[in-house]
Amino acid sequence: MLNNTFKIVYLIGLILASVIRGYYTFRHRSKDYKINRDTLIDSLFLRGIGLVMILPFIYIFSSWLDFADYSLPDWTGWTGTFIFICFCILLWRSHADLGKHWTATLAIRPGHRLQTKGIFSYIRHPMYAAHILWGIAQILMLHNWIVGYSFFVAVISHYLYRVGKEEQMMLDEFGEDYRKYMDSSGRIFPRIKRDQQHNQ
């Protein structure tokens, strides 16, 4: 049941994230693709993640999964809250910067331009980074062996399966421009740019 602060905060954050994703999904809902490399495995991953996202609701509104609870200090919940806020900001910024070119599947829309501005000037896959932050926040906020870790495991598995395929698709489409972009940005963590003049 809704019996602690972090369950309530998590629920509020989940609603906010759903509003962000829903707004941009509705705004750019075209399924007109220039390239579509969606696979059955990728579709199964996305459906699995969708199912895993139901677990926090079961946990928050029932006692069915309470047998897997464990205790952590309150500071972990507040740390998770901060990370969840960072996730929401990064999710919003990713959608805002990518605009109409975002797709949930492994696809490229007609007229897609390589996005290297905004958050994309630092990392190539900010949405993956955002969802990994969500997974970490869930571990810290929902102290349950099943619910806490479920999303993180699902998202990391999907990321490891898909990110290489996504980058290959971008290389096939944008060639040397994307290769140069890869050299100047990190995948999900900003690349540390060393001052070459200082090192000479």
Brief characterization of the structure:
The protein has helices spanning 5-27, 40-52, 55-61, 74-98, 126-141, 147-174, 176-184, 196-199, and strands spanning 35-36, 107-108.
Helix content: 55-70%
Q: Give the helices and strands as they follow along the chain.
A: HEHHHEHHHH
Sheet-strand content, in percent, reads under 5%
What structural class do the secondary elements suggest?
mainly alpha
Question: Architecture, according to CATH?
Answer: Up-down Bundle
Strand order of the largest sheet: 1-2
Assembly status = single chain
Count of β-strands: 2
Number of domains: 1
Poorly predicted runs are 195-200
**CA gyration radius, whole angstroms:** 18 Å
Q: How far do the termini sit from each other?
A: 61 Å
Describe this structure in words.
This protein has helices spanning 5-27, 40-52, 55-61, 74-98, 126-141, 147-174, 176-184, 196-199; strands spanning 35-36, 107-108. By secondary structure, it is mostly helical. The protein has a single domain (5-24, 37-190), classed as Four Helix Bundle (Hemerythrin (Met), subunit A) (Up-down Bundle), CATH 1.20.120. A two-stranded antiparallel ribbon has the order 1-2. The longest helix has 28 residues, at 147-174. The protein is globular, with a radius of gyration of 18 Å. The termini are far apart. Mean pLDDT is 91; it is low at 195-200.
Which terms would index this structure?
single chain; 200 residues; mainly alpha; Four Helix Bundle (Hemerythrin (Met), subunit A); two-stranded antiparallel sheet; 8 helices; globular; disordered C terminus
